[in-house]
Design a protein that fits this description.
19 strands, 8-stranded mixed beta sheet, 17 helices
Length: 483
């Protein structure tokens, strides 16, 4: 895609008009700076966004956030809202790691209070939370227990004593999508997931102990119980092998039936089904079950971290409490109502590598966040800051209530390993006082900060575009990576 074809709509917003390529039904819009567009155009993500604009039932625009990069069919950092009656649902528009997402925990301690215990905390968490490709944990669910988790999500973990009531109140959807159906999830997917509850996985998944570095909005930070120097914990992982298998299964189911449905696609990786078809309904039920598994996975990890926190801090007379601030999905399809041409319309909103960012007043939010807006969690890299933002009404008007999900990759894992080694990454981070727990040198190199875009610039775009407000910046003080 030649970026000279892009039309500048306003500051930080560019458009590919709907008549730019045959088959486009709506324009494609990208939130970015001019400099970022040069970087974005280095892979096929803009062509993928154009392809998304050709999907049946798409409304208003195919959207890309500033962290956009190439994905499977849909770009990562992409948003597509389909008319519920006439549109399609696409597994590739959600991604293979269904409900990959981020949770933020708040401690009652300041950095100086745990400085002597920080290394022990990081090591204990690393010991207690299994990580690595395909790695299972100590908890192996029976088929009946797994079905309960798929159906009830975090509610089931509350029943088992692995969650607190406060957790459910501060998780998107309260940790349970109600249309989940375990029967729509294949036996192979269940087999892959039955021992993976409470495991981190690999790739860009991580656990971080962070410190609040800067407050931008004192009133909002106060509402969230956050102040400068406060110790926080961030969890980034998803539905592991179970979610991956659900996506694989439904791509295989839908691809051969496209002709029957009269759907022509510019890319078969966009395989989809009419939302109202049996296949579309079944995928949404399976996706919801995988989403419930992912929220439960982050909940089980929260439980393990709380135990590690108690083991290290209680003997020292320190408060071990960790409260959930919020938990957001960034790979998911949601049935939501939005205003289009002054009318409330029921949509299926695909967010792939994109975070819901509702402003105040939405009924989907709990009482606190309905008053002040939805928290948005934007992780950086091992060596850069993460952000806590708040959604706005502007986001609801222009992006179906969506912003970016992270820094976004700027180079492949292979390229990152070519440029830097794991020991070099470790040395650099430790020279800055960041404790690193990761058994894999290759994993460290693949996820090196240089492999990612500038998270400050990415966040600056969505803030300046009015899609979110900055509340706080968080800096990593200990990193636990999936190897």
């Amino acid at each position: 895609m030649d970026i000279k074809q892009l039309k500048r709509i306003e500051d930080y917003l560019y458009e590919i008009p709907a008549d730019s390529r045959r088959g486009m039904l709506v324009p494609a819009r990208i939130y970015a700076t001019a400099r970022m567009l040069e970087e974005i155009s280095s892979d096929s993500s803009l062509d993928q966004l154009i392809n998304v604009a050709a999907l049946p039932g798409i409304q208003k625009y195919a959207l890309a956030m500033p962290d956009i990069h190439e994905g499977y069919g849909f770009p990562i950092g992409g948003v597509a809202a389909m008319d519920f009656s006439e549109g399609v649902v696409s597994p590739g528009g959600v991604g293979y790691d269904i409900n990959c997402g981020v949770r933020l925990l708040r401690s009652g301690l300041k950095v100086e209070e745990i400085s002597e215990k920080l290394k022990s905390l990081a090591h204990q968490i690393s010991r207690d939370v299994p990580s690595g490709v395909g790695r299972g944990g100590e908890i192996v669910l029976t088929p009946e227990d797994l079905d309960e988790v798929l159906k009830k999500g975090v509610k089931r973990l509350l029943e088992l004593g692995w969650a607190e009531k406060n957790d459910l109140e501060n998780i998107e959807e309260n940790g349970c999508m109600k249309n989940a159906d375990p029967e729509a999830v294949s036996a192979q997917a269940k087999k892959r997931g039955r021992d993976q509850l409470g495991t981190l996985g690999s790739g860009n998944h991580f656990l971080e102990i962070q410190a609040v570095d800067q407050i931008y909005d004192e009133p909002l930070a106060k509402e969230l119980g956050i102040e400068t120097g406060r110790v926080m914990v961030m969890i980034h992982t998803g539905s592991r092998g179970l979610g991956h298998q659900v996506c694989t299964d439904y791509v295989k189911i839908m691809a051969p039936k496209l002709a029957k449905w009269g759907i022509e696609l510019p890319d078969r990786e966009l395989a989809c089904a009419p939302i109202s078809s049996p296949e579309g309904k079944s995928y949404l039920a399976a996706m919801a079950a995988a989403a419930n598994f992912a929220w439960s996975n982050r909940q089980m990890i929260t439980h393990l971290i709380r135990n590690a926190w108690k083991r290290i801090l209680e003997p020292a007379g320190l408060d071990p409490r960790l409260d959930t601030v919020y938990d957001v999905a960034h790979n998911i399809a949601k049935i939501e109502e939005h205003i289009i041409k002054d009318k409330k319309v029921k949509l299926c909103v695909h967010r792939k590598g994109a975070t819901r960012a509702f402003g105040p007043g939405r009924p989907e939010l709990n009482e606190l966040y309905r008053r002040i807006g939805q928290p948005v969690l934007i992780p950086g890299t091992m060596g850069t800051s993460s952000y806590l933002l708040m959604g706005t009404e502007m986001a609801e008007k222009t992006t179906f209530g969506t912003v970016c999900h992270g820094a976004g990759r700027r180079m492949s894992r292979h390229e990152a390993k070519r440029r830097i080694t794991g020991p070099e990454v470790r040395k650099e981070l430790e020279s800055r006082g960041i404790i690193v727990e990761c058994a894999s040198s290759a994993g460290l190199a693949e996820e090196a900060p240089l492999a990612y875009k500038d998270v400050d610039e990415v966040v600056d775009v969505v803030v300046r575009a009015g899609l979110a407000k900055r509340v706080a910046k968080l800096k990593p003080i200990a990193v636990i990576k999936g190897g």
